[in-house]
Amino acid sequence: MTTSLDQFGRSIEYLRISVTDRCNFRCVYCMPLEGLDWLPKGDILSYEEITEVVTQLAPLGLKRLRITGGEPTIRPQLEKLIAMLKAIPGVEDIALSTNGVKLPVMAASLAAAGLDRVNISADSLRPDRIKAIARRDLGFDPVGALRAAAAAGLDPVKYNVVVMRGINDDEIGDFARLTLDHAVHVRFIELMPVGEMAGLTWEHVVPSDEVLSRASEAIGALEPSSGPVMGNGPAKYYRAAGAPGTIGVITPMSHTYCGTCNRVRLTADGRLRTCLYGDHEVNLRDPLRSGERLEPLFIQALANKPKEHNLLQMQVGGLKALSQVGG
Ligand code: SAM
Ligand code: SF4
At the N or C end, where does the chain have fewer CB atoms within 10 A? Predict the structure, then answer.
């Protein structure tokens, strides 16, 4: 199979596919409570169209997929899409990013359809706090979601924890302790200042070095860890001696990892985004709907993929919320 390189020689093999811009949560760091304009239904790619995009681009080296949103599990019959994508030659691995609310009822059918792995957003282990951060009370139980995913055979199961000073940073130790008893991979994510963010500012960002030292205060020395669990992304992983789970940090703010970026994104309305931030995107939907081939557009988009983001300079383009591009 071909490998596609961008203009800086990075091999692009990972596609994040947003299947909806809507969500059943309104996380403080992600979505405003109101004021987002939802995409009209006709603008959103159908499952058949998403499958056609991947069918055309997989031969160019896109072999790992992540389904994201908004909240992907609220789009009806997500299992159908997973099965369609899994059947495409060259697709090796399908992951899901979810807030986990629907995992207890959906994990088994998603796994049966061909889902390999799952990341669950879990910013707190305390019901009141979950409600305050998500601004919805849907009875989300992070440990229940983890158990459902593991019982369905999804592997690895990861938690994504956005750390916010004064809001949930006192739970770093509790999350770290979970890795001593569960094969869960807890990834602490630095808060990114994108969009409206309900009053969150740079002062709420907790640098990953501090997170690691606080995790280590809770569970002892952390050794760098590697292995198949590590996936496609920019996280660095650590493990306490003998622990079944690991701790990872994702550091968009304190240490950028653009030099090894291997990914592009497909928005729910069919735009190929070559960087999470800024306005580097190409409309694939209209050419697809008019029967054009997508390969030349993909190659051209990679030729323009920027070297790095300018998040520290707050250059986020027209992005109002990460939910619009799938994080
Ligand atoms: N709804 C799914 C979920 O919550 O996992 C998938 C979409 S969500 C936009 C993807 C990821 O982006 C989540 O892990 C979320 O925590 C992260 N995210 C959203 N806004 C963020 C921000 N301002 N800073 C850091 N991470 C953010
Ligand atoms: Fe929804 Fe995920 Fe954004 Fe939370 S982080 S509002 S669950 S899309």
Answer: N
